[in-house]
Amino acid sequence: PGPAGRQTRKNVVAVVGGGLVGALNACFFAKRGFHVEVFETREDIRTAKTVRGRSINLALSLRGRQALKHVGLEDKIVSKGIPMNARMIHSLSGKQSPIPYGRKGQYILSVDRANLNKELLTEAETYPNTKLNFDHKLQDWSSETGLMTFVRSDGSRSQVQADLIVGCDGAFSAVRKQFLRRSRFNYSQTYIPHGYKELTMPPRDGEFAMKPNFLHIWPRNTFMMIALPNMDKTFTCTLFMPFEDFEKITTGDEVIEFFRKHFPDAIPLIGADALRTDYFRLPAQAMVSVKCSPYHIQDRCVLMGDAAHAVVPFYGQGMNAGFEDCIVFDDIMNQFNEDFSSVLPEYSRVRVPDDHAIADLAMYNYVEMRAHVNSKWFLFRKRVDNLLHFLMPKTIIPLYTMVTFTRTRYHEAVQRWHWQQKVINLGLLLGAVGAAAGGSYLLVKNPPNINRILVHAEHIRSKLVSLKTS
Ligand code: FAD
Fold first, then answer.
1. 306 C-alpha vs ligand 1 centroid, how far in Å?
2. Residue 195 CB–ligand 1 contact under 6 Å
3. pTM for the whole structure
4. Among protein residues, the one whose CA lies closest to atom 15 of ligand 1
5. What is the CA radius of gyration of the chain?
6. Which numbered atom of ligand 1 lies nearest the CA of 42?
7. Is beta strand 86-90 parallel, antiparallel or unpaired with respect to 214-219?
């Protein structure tokens, strides 16, 4: 196992957290021949009666797919996903307008979170050098010795030593607690004012109640609802709204009234009776954005996935970024011959700017998804970007395309986007000035009927005003 000539041989890798990123990471380390121990708080979700977790389904895109490919799981997961080629915007009147995600043939996939997690755990278990320890909650660990203390649901404790600890224990990481005690560790966390609630839209006459190959969005400026399709022909609808608005709705009738006002087309599709009860099934869930740096302690511990960078879910990149962490780490392992004293600092150096960039982009999209998509100017600019991308595919690449359909480093995508914005806006301005100059020249050459011009000018002005104010 592993390339010959490795300088430091780390035998035992403890992956804390057997969620999406932890289970995938176990495969990456096992493939390299390390002895991998996964410790997960929950019982085995493959045999558990109830699985409680976060969103029911999620959008998988290129970065995540590439990581799955690395461990031979891409085809299996893709075959159980539903392609979404475009957003489908639902207006208040019920009109539906598609906005494609990219070029023809480019799509994101709606995948079932629980199934994905189960497949990843099963894959990890196929390696004889991997052991999965469920019902093991990390309570504490020592950054000096690498000794970890776990508690089980019956109250028993155990201590385990590892050469490398990989913290994949999510947004409220217990591994990260040790980092917080150290000097020069930067940390910030922000809760957004919005929470979310999930509702199920059942099939209609055995078929999807809405067109399945879309991510449906009901943008309502200060709040929004989205819906992603599932393999069983249901949709999972997620309502994102400020907590104070959730709290204003206290009865079934108020739920219906709220939906009648803001999402009337969704009432018959979800079902009024189901809406009345399902809305109150669970409290609204909070969303947190966590940024920190560095991601490592010496050659002993590294954070990946949400433990390193929880992002708000509006770019559909949290899991994708976490999966990409595994590829980036793996590449650096090759580069530095698995010498952890070099690999870990290099991983922090390379990955922090990218994960911070996607955290910022996700925050930006938090506004774009619920508000900007209602603006004609925004839609016009999207069309301009897409047209320019079509004409000059290597020069102008829409931000969404770079983030979702390429592995361009996140921070480079942001830099390039800022540059493109400047160039395109300048081009639009020059185009407008050119058109005005050309018009003036023609006017001087052939003096026309001034009244007709004034009527046209007024028409153009009012169009521009309506574009800017919408
Ligand atoms: P988690 O999935 O949180 O897993 C952490 C695991 O660690 C859990 O199994 C937990 O039980 C375990 N654990 C926790 N503490 C301990 C401990 N002390 N000891 C042992 N084990 C422990 N991302 C996308 O890419 N696309 C999307 O469309 C998308 N949609 C989302 C929608 C919503 C509403 C939300 C909230 C998130 C969404 N995400 C999406 C983000 C995605 O869910 C996360 O980025 C992803 O789950 C991160 O995986 P993880 O393994 O790092 O963390």
1. 6
2. no
3. 0.90
4. 169
5. 26
6. 11
7. parallel
